[in-house]
Specification:
Helices cover about 25% and strands about 30% of the residues. The chain has about 280 residues and is an alpha+beta fold.
């Protein structure tokens, strides 16, 4: 059990997020009494920025000094945020018009602007690795700001763009999913789905992230069934497993005596053996 005196000596830490589905960063709340969903002004490498409290203050051992939260945001801070968001929208539209006049194989995704408008970060996606210093210089003159171009992957682009999936809900990546995990063809096959990319691909063009959600359940259920090709004994007759029905927890047996097929549950199996 942790020593209470030791806990009391640990500093207060609060978690904040700059974007709705972005990572959570830890800050020192100082003397502020903060709650989840509070808007706060924090010090960052790029200057003061607005963030939202997602993890309430708690004592925790830390290994490095944390930046401090400056204050709770007031109406003036929120007003500056609105102006910054409008500036980002205006910048993005100007950039789109400029890029459309080029032959570059890129897709502009979003624009982020410093509160004072002196710096603009432009995010784009492309199938190729590109060096866009010349374009960044042109856009810097257009926007009258220092421009940085950052290439992101197809999944990150879909996360920023947002949208609605075939399920009728907002995309997982743009609503709650914080980090991307690998999705493989093996996961699709494990769930008995046909490899039809028109149905399996998400807005990003990659395999849908939801292919991961039930994968571990399918793996666990599959382990309880005899493998395809195994020879088993059942109350319905001896035979060879030709197909598994993972969700129903049954197998289709090809009977040895007449070659007919019969569905058998786990309770129907009295013994099972693999090929010698």
């Amino acid at each position: 059990m942790m020593d209470e005196d030791n806990v009391e000596s640990q500093p207060w830490v609060v978690g904040v997020r700059f974007r709705p589905t972005g990572p959570v960063y830890e800050f020192d709340p100082g003397p502020l009494l903060l709650e989840v969903e509070d808007r706060v002004l924090v010090e960052t490498e790029r200057g003061p920025s607005l963030a939202t409290v997602t993890v309430p203050p708690r004592r925790r051992s830390i290994t490095r000094p944390l930046r401090r939260i400056i204050k709770k945001a007031d109406f003036r801070d929120l007003g500056r945020e609105d102006r910054t968001l409008q500036r980002e929208r205006d910048n993005f539209h100007q950039v789109l018009e400029h890029v459309r006049g080029t032959s570059l194989p890129i897709k502009m995704v979003s624009a982020e602007s410093a509160p004072d408008g002196s710096r603009v970060t432009l995010y784009f996606s492309s199938e190729d690795r590109l060096e866009l210093r010349e374009l960044a210089a042109e856009l810097g003159e257009l926007l009258r700001a220092r421009v940085e171009m950052k290439q992101i992957g197809a999944r990150d682009a879909a996360k920023v763009a947002g949208g609605v999936g075939v399920c009728g809900r907002e995309l997982c990546c743009s609503s709650w999913l914080r980090e991307f995990q690998a999705v493989s063809v093996k996961m699709v096959k494990e769930q008995g789905l046909s490899l039809n990319m028109s149905k399996l691909a998400g807005q990003c063009g990659r395999l849908k992230c939801c292919m991961r959600y039930e994968y571990s359940t399918y793996q666990e259920l599959r382990r309880t069934l005899p493998a395809v090709g195994a020879r088993v004994q059942s109350v319905k007759g001896d035979g060879q497993v030709v197909r598994q029905n993972i969700l129903r927890q049954t197998v289709l047996l090809r009977l040895a005596n007449d070659g007919g097929d019969v569905e058998a549950t786990l309770e129907d199996l009295v013994a099972k053996r693999t090929d010698a």
